[in-house]
Every structure is written in structure tokens, then in C-alpha cells.
Amino acid sequence: MSPFFANYGQDPLWQFDLTTTSKQSSKRTNDRFAPNTVSEERAAKQLVEKFKEITEYLQAELSRTQMVHQEQADKKRKPALALRIGDQVWFNTRNLST
């Protein structure tokens, strides 16, 4: 999934219609913004649902990717030592200055 799709809910359109005149494009613009509250409300609800689905999908993919990376990182890790108060340990002072 591309970042553009995640932000806008669709892939970018790379096709341009150069045959439309300015009158046709202005008419199309006026029709698009004509007040029609019922269809606008329905379209808005559909858009919200689409973005919810995209968000859920991206969250699932991020979780899956995080688990894969965690598994790969854990392959090279050693378990931490269980130290308790009173245990004697060696302390390296090479990088300490007095």
C-alpha cells in the first residue's frame, strides 16, 4: 500500500484528459459542488468507512511487521542475567574517568 493510498484512499490517477474545454471543466466543477445533502452524507459515510478499513489494515500490517522484526532481532540476543542484590560481579572501569 502506498502512502498516497493511505492518505487519500485511492491510488493517484496518472491519466489526463486534455480534450476537455474550460466550459466542460467548469460545468463539471459546478455539478460536483451542487447542494445534495443526502448523497453527500452517504458519500461522506462511505469515505469514513473506507478510511477506517485502511487504518485497520495499516495497523495490522505494522503489528505484523513489528513482530517479524522482533523475531529476527531476538535470534541474536542472549537472555539477560538474573542478578540479585548481594551478587558479586566484575565492573569494567575502562570508560570511567576519576
Topology at a glance:
Elements: H1 3-8, H2 22-32, H3 37-74
How would you describe what is shown here?
With 98 residues, the protein is mostly helical. It has a domain at 46-77. It contains 3 helices and no strands. The model is unreliable at 21-28 (pLDDT under 50).
The helix tally amounts to: 3
Termini separation comes to 55 Å
Report the strand count.
Answer: 0
Task: Extract low-pLDDT stretches.
Answer: 21-28
Question: Could you list some keywords that capture this structure?
Answer:
3 helices, mainly alpha, 56% helix, 98 residues
Q: Can you describe this structure in just a few lines?
A:
By secondary structure, this protein is an all-alpha fold.
